[in-house]
Amino acid sequence: MIPLLRQRLRRDWLQLSLWILGAVLLAYAGYGGVTQSYGTVADRQEVLAAVAANPVILMFRGLPSGDSVGAFLAFEDLPWLAMLAALMSTFLAVRHTRGDEEAGRGELVASTAAGRVLPTLATIVHGLVANAVLALLTAVSLIAAGMDAVGSLLLGGAAGATGVAVLGIGLVAAQLMRTSRGANALTVWLVVATFLIRGIGNVAGTPSDDLTRIESSWLVWLSPFGWAEQVRPYDADDPLPLLLALGVGLVLSAAAIALQSMRDMGASFIPERNGRPTASAALSSPHALVWRLSWGAILGWVIGGALTGILATTLGGLAGRIAGENPAVAQILEKIARAGALDEAMITVFFTMLGILAACAAVQTVVRARQEEAHGTAEPVLAAAVGRVRWFADYVIVATVAVVLVVAAGMGTAYAGIAANGGPSELHRVVTVTGLGQLAAASVFTALTALVFVILPRATLAAGWAMIGAATILGMFGPLFGMPEWATDISPIAVAPVVSHGDVDLRGLWWLLLAVVVAGTGALTLMRRRELAADG
């Protein structure tokens, strides 16, 4: 097993380093943000009361467990630390199981003395070690900042245990689905669904009289994210939910080994849909093929964009009442959005998430080009009358179309929400400006990921998603964590145009457009000289 673990470490050291470093920085920056922005008990009580009074904000925050610095830090950071661990575990589990089978590596290893079971066991150990390191370093960063050791260890452990639970889910998904793409998609959607179930369970819970603590409903016990929050670091410090998450992860891992023994190499329990005997006219061109390969994933991001848009303007109708009851909500939103009026800030905050979704759709599409190249399926296309630049340009075009569709879905439902709630007509301009601004911001990720694909093809997957992770942390959480403005402005989504106090603020629009043009042109130009890098 040791040689297999060394091989996995060589392949994954960069990706794992980025995930773990992101978690450590998020935890440490969260401590700085809490102590700087919410340094007094009164400040923290105001925020917790505002969140408890607004179910939708509570959906995307942690579980209120008191007004101490530690409990407030867990409320701010724990769901997102757990999400980082979950996504890290998802890609790790699928890459070394179904991904290796797709690439033919699994069959080669199985033909040696290792057999079929040992590589899967090595993947399980690999995932456990990665989550343990993430948990430990996260806890150490908080202890170094001056936080209580027990609470810090439990907060880091809660994130790591969530990763272990999702590791098991990813391993089972890799047995069920025929492709690594399908296994990743299934696991990610389950992660998103359980994250939302956790939020619904908190919303359906019972707040304390002072609105600083919520007793969650039974729904949270259906979600590994809910188990993590029930640890309540720096408050109850209950380790039992950690044992539940670890136990479920190990049971699912054992189930994955059992399922693997019941199928042939390369087979799956959910077969792929049979293809048509003849190709349709829609597949008569290379760009149509790219669209056919990508449209299913793009549809999921479009649905997410539509939901984000309707929430943006539906909540906008409630903004005035919420601000009147507790101005802390307005202060939070305005700090994130750096916008003026509260309804403008509400739209800006949610459209920041819309920009992230659009960027995810773009990066996933460009990464698809790398997967086609690594798996050797790009070669038959390039063997026809299709040049390398045209082949790659089709992926960039489809990625751009994906950005447009996601943003358009969000803007369309936002307009519908304004009409349904009788919102002021001025909000139409806010939606238009902010939506188009996030379109420009998301396009930066398309161009930069394309440039990485050309220069460092093997780093495409890691670099593309790492850029989105860094931009999300800086753009969405930087202002809350008290980061300097120059640091948050590194994120494209943070410098997109907005409407502030009724005036259009272009902010970094010209820099965004310049980055798109330079990186996009550079990628397509350099692609002329680049050879295929087919090995994964």
Word description of this protein:
With 536 residues, this protein is mainly α. It has 2 domains: 1-271, no CATH class; 283-536, no CATH class. The protein is built from 21 helices and 4 strands. The protein has helices at 2-37, 41-52, 55-59, 69-95, 98-103, 105-110, 117-144, 149-176, 180-203, 224-230, 240-261, 286-316, 319-325, 328-337, 342-374, 378-383, 388-421, 426-455, 460-477, 485-488, 509-526; strands at residues 206-207, 214-215, 498-500, 503-505. Strands 1-2 form a two-stranded antiparallel ribbon. Strand 1 and strand 2 form a beta hairpin. Helix 8 runs antiparallel to helix 10 (224-230). It is globular and about 65 Å long. The chain starts with a helix and ends in a 10-residue tail after the last helix. 54% of the residues are buried. The mean pLDDT is 86.
| Structural domains: how many | 2
CA-atom Rg in angstroms:
23 Å
Total E-strand runs: 4
**Structural class of the secondary elements?**
mainly alpha
Rounded average pLDDT: 86
| Order of SSEs | HHHHHHHHHEEHHHHHHHHHHHEEH
Strand content: under 5%
The low-pLDDT segments are: none
Annotation field: number of helices: 21
Range of helix content: over 70%
Short summary of the structure?
The chain has 2 domains: about 1-270, no CATH class; about 285-535, no CATH class. The two termini are about 20 Å apart.
